[in-house]
């Protein structure tokens, strides 16, 4: 009798029997499309393990600009969004791609630039600062990536009376990159750049950069979560995604956000509706 011939199909059958059990033994996970600011600031490394410990659900983050994150969710490639462009988020939900927009936390945008401030922008009026910058040839680095920060930047240029900064501002350069890389480019070029405060506080390669403009109400930056609508994409893990959305606005989730600090400073302020 040829035992090898008998053994091979037996092993194959055993392997096929084991595969479903092995797959079911894997912990459940969801894909969350989010922003570079939440990832690069270090927030998720602080926040997500606490959710996984509480729920047993792993969260796999894809960090993109908000515009790209929304497009990813529209394609059904994410179960959940954690983003910061309220107008775009409301449109996403109105179009039926998301179940609801749930505010989670906030911080603010800040204008960063050379410590010497050659354009003389230092203060707390962002529109006046950008209008003054436009009248110079000083370098400004834009994310240029359809992110929440990029959308906010364009909105602030409009507040300064400039509809197309790429055409109107001599030193304007779009990098098409995330917040961390944009800050690195600004540091190496000694340029001005708009950043969310969280990423700026976590950023180490500051060189000669300093925070120049803050405190204007127009710099407010709200973050929200949105569960992708399973009516659009039936494969979405809606129960697990909703479990994260519910947890992050619960007292334990909000406390975890409030406890995230860099150098003793809070990077985000938990502000979910009670």
* Regions with little confidence, pLDDT below 50 for 5+ residues: 1-24
Q: What fold name goes in the CATH topology slot of the largest domain? A: D-Maltodextrin-Binding Protein, domain 2
What's the domain count?
2
Calculate the mean pLDDT score and round it. Answer: 91
Radius of gyration: 23 Å
- Give the amount of beta strand, in percent: 15-25%
Order of helices and strands: HEHHEHEHEHEHHEHEHEEHHEEE
Helical stretch tally:
12
Distance between the termini: 74 Å
Secondary-structure-derived class: alpha/beta
CATH class of the largest domain: Alpha Beta
Largest sheet descriptor: 10 strands, mixed
| Helical residues, percent | 40-55%
Please give the number of β-strands. Answer: 12
Task: Describe this structure as you would to a colleague.
The chain has two domains: 28-106 and 220-270, D-Maltodextrin-Binding Protein, domain 2 (3-Layer(aba) Sandwich); 109-219, D-Maltodextrin-Binding Protein, domain 2 (3-Layer(aba) Sandwich), CATH 3.40.190. The protein has 274 residues and is an alpha/beta fold. The protein is globular, with a radius of gyration of 23 Å. The protein is 44% helix and 24% strand. The strands form two sheets. Strands 1, 2, 3, 4, 5, 6, 7, 8, 9 and 12 form a ten-stranded mixed beta sheet that branches. Strands 10-11 form a two-stranded antiparallel sheet. It has helices at residues 3-25, 36-40, 43-55, 66-74, 86-94, 126-134, 148-159, 165-168, 179-189, 197-202, 238-248, 251-258, and strands at residues 29-35, 58-64, 80-83, 98-114, 140-142, 172-174, 192-196, 209-213, 220-228, 261-262, 265-266, 269-270. 43% of the residues are buried.
